[in-house]
Amino acid sequence: MSPAEPLVAAPPRDARWFPRFGSPPPAAGTAGTRLVCFPYAGGTASVYRDWREHLGGGVADVAALQLPGRGLRMREEPYASAEPLVADVADELVRQGLTRDYAFFGHSMGALLAYEVGCALRDRGEPGPRHLFVSGSRAPHLYGDRTEHLLPDAELRDFAAGIGALGDGDQALLNSAYLDRRLPVLRADLRVCNGYRWRPRRPLDCPMTAFSASDDPVADAADVEAWRPYTSSSFLHHRVRGDHFFLTADGSARQRLLRELRGELARLPRASGTPTEQKERSWTY
Hints:
Elements: H1 13-17, E1 33-38, H2 51-55, E2 59-64, H3 82-95, E3 102-107, H4 109-123, E4 132-135, H5 153-162, H6 177-195, E5 208-213, H7 221-225, E6 235-240, H8 252-267
Parallel strand pairs: 1-2, 1-3, 3-4, 4-5, 5-6
């Protein structure tokens, strides 16, 4: 779980949902696709703070979602179920004009949210994501069979440590005031995941790229491979070394993740108002 940003006065509404890091993004239409990033359970937008720098010219902007209960939204109540959360995120994306020439990335719970928000936008007649990247997440129909949100605080801290949420060398945080402060947010996010029930609907029509880690106790390779039927376009599955939080660790797995994202985003044709996501047999294996 990422350290919380300092608590200050409530930010403007636009910055509440999608806080800005670094320099302003390029003007619309002058660069590549916008990547909208969704956090994992208990996570904050700050995990994606440096992604625009790493992704380079293939991406116009990285818009990282900040959910209530953390960072500058610390005083807000976190969501406890998926349906209102998905609806509110879709509302905000439309309101801020972020649903043109965009792709989604989500890790763990974030992958589930990205998929559901993509479906919700399609139901509203909005343009869908041009690519969906899912990482460290079981396919949606595999959710709803876990009960970590019901664990006592001590056992929930142990669970967080066991899946790599604290990172190497951070075991002292297990007993810190910081982690105690974050447990309610983690518990609420896990309730969102564990209370979720997938409902059948047609696949998304954008290409999908999935990432699974070799030592992930939450989503193994077969769980991630199960995303394949969720797109009618191409599906690519990358297997990397690491645990559930390989994307936050400095190492080869994170570097490969960013390299693959950069490459896929750079290969997207410029948006022209006509469908561009045609299935390419060579991408699917």
